[in-house]
Amino acid sequence: MQAYSKSFAVDSTTGGDAHIGQDRFLFIQSFSTEKFESKKGDSVMINGKKIFITGGAGFICSTLIGKLIERNDVIIYDNLDRNSINNKDYFNHSNLRLIKGDVLDINKLAESAKDVDIIIHAAAIAGIDNTIKSPVRTMRVNMLGTANVLEIAKNNKLERFIDFSTSEVFGSHAFKVDEISETSIGAVGEARWTYAVSKLASEHLTYSYYKEYQIPIVTIRPFNIYGPGQIGEGAIQIFIRKALKNEDIYIFGDGNQIRAWCYIDDMIECILLCLEHKNAIGESFNIGNARAVTTIYGLAQIVCRVLNSKSNIIFKPELSADIELRIPGTTKAKDLLGFQAQIDLDDGIRRTAEWYQAHFDEMPELPKMFQK
Asked: Are the CB atoms for 288 and 167 separated by under 8 Å?
């Protein structure tokens, strides 16, 4: 299959998605009209805690640390394969300790996490490129690494254990899925399901430690999080970095895959609520923005429109099985935590682009499959 180019053109009255059918466009538009008001739950500010974060140098947790570092001691445990902390203002903060380590090294893990109050387990192999290259490492780190961290947690008197799962546990068609919707293990041999099933197994193990050992766990399932500081394979950051330079934007597959996009600040707010609320213990939560919905092709168009970019959008053969539809149901987070996402897609893209424009020189190269 040959890659082909489609010149960028967008109807400003629709904000994108000229490539999709009218029925699908109306389906997507139905999510943008819902109004809501945010409410705050009965939470307690985290203060004076010793917090251990695996994968703490990654995009989400490096942002979270900025909200915790002034009032708490934070230990980052990370192999630094993806490093988003170097450009953080708190990098040399006296409350921060950085340990380079692997979650498969249980002895170093145990030594590093002594006497902590909170564990946030975000270390994982993610991204389709990484999973294709090393499915064995993906499963070992995501499953055995989680088992190691839970064993360490069992030996600490924890106030909270946050486990990062993924929205991909819901399979290829996930429409307003709630936390008890059926999960999927997918076809054996498909790279995407290698990742998803490793995270699903970790969810089951985490919940088992809650039931058997009363570890105060919370599982979170992020739905397409984006924002300043993201590196790796996130679609929005790749599209933005390309659009700011008027470079070709590549879409793998037909671009009709539907996603809901959640800005990083909303994600962080929900994690903080999961750390603070007693209602969260023993629960899992979908974290996403069900109002910020578009196709992958529509997303590329919106990025180009918001940034006034001259990038062309080029379609390439799909890399592996893909998620056709992924929109979260978030009622549980609203009812138990008082959380609802606030940042709309245009605003989030603008904020993200401003950050990348100011930090271009600090960014690692894009993965090769996204380069020319």
From this structure: yes
Residue 102 belongs to domain spanning: 50-294+306-370
- Least confident stretch, 167-171, 296-300, 341-345: 167-171
Instruction: Decide if 11 is inside a domain.
Output: no
- Residue 37 burial (CB count, 10 A): 5
Pairing of strands 50-54, 325-328: unpaired
Cβ atoms < 10 Å from Cβ of 13: 5
CA distances from 136 to 144, 186, 201, 204, 232 (A): 11, 17, 15, 20, 20
Beta bridge partner(s), residue 6: 313
For 106, what's the count of Cα atoms within 13 Å in the CB-facing half-sphere? 11
Count of CB atoms situated within 10 Å of the CB of 363: 13
In angstroms, the CA 157 to CA 118 distance is 9
Calpha distance 354→85 (Å, rounded): 18
Angle (CA) 326-292-33 rounded to 5° is: 115
Judge if pTM exceeds 0.70.
Answer: yes
Does residue 14 lie within any of the structural domains?
A: no
